[in-house]
Amino acid sequence: MSDFFGASVLRVEQPRRGPFARSKYKVMDGDGTVLALADETGARGRTETLRTVFPGKSELDARAVLLSTPDGEPLLIVDKERGRMLTAVRRPEGELVGTIRTERVGRLYRLYDGDDKRIGEIAVDVARSNFVVSDGEGNRVARVRKKWAGLATHLLTTADKYDVEIHDPVPEPLRTLAATTAIAMDMTLHESKDIT
Known about the structure:
It contains four helices and twelve strands, in the order E-E-E-H-E-E-E-E-E-E-E-E-H-E-H-H.
C-alpha cells in the first residue's frame, strides 16, 4: 500500500498540458518521492474535448481522476460531477469515502462522510489559493496552498502546484478528504483558467 494515506506533507503537481489533454496529477511526499499518480478516467467525446478550449466552460463538465500508486495499484477516485456543486471521493471498488459539497462557490465547501454525516469544511481565500480544512468542531486539520507560478503560466497553461500539510492525527474519512482537497479544488476552481 502507498504511503499516500500516511504522509503529513504532500506536494500535488499538475503538469503543463494542452487544451485537448486529460487531467493528470502527481502526488509526492515532502522529499519529492512520488506516492501516487492521478489520471482522468473515461474517454471524452469530440464535443466534450472541444469545450475545454473555451475558457469558462471546462469547470462545468463532469470529470473524474483515478489516483493510483506508481506501480498502478488503484487507491481512490475523485469524481467531480457536472457543475461546481459536488465532488465524490470513492474507493476503486465504488465505496463512497465522502463528498465535498459547495456551500458558496469558490469560498466554502462542506465535507460529508459516506453516510452523509457532516464531518468538516474547506474554507477558501479570495484569491482561491489557500484552503483550510477543518473538522466538524471547527478545528483546523489541514492546509492546502496553491503556489503562484507567474501570470503567463497561470493564464495560459494548466500547470498548478499545491502544498498540503495535514495536522495529524486526523480521523478517517476526514483525513482522506483532506489529502484529496488539492485535486478536488483544482478540478472545481482552476481547471478552466477562467477569471471569475
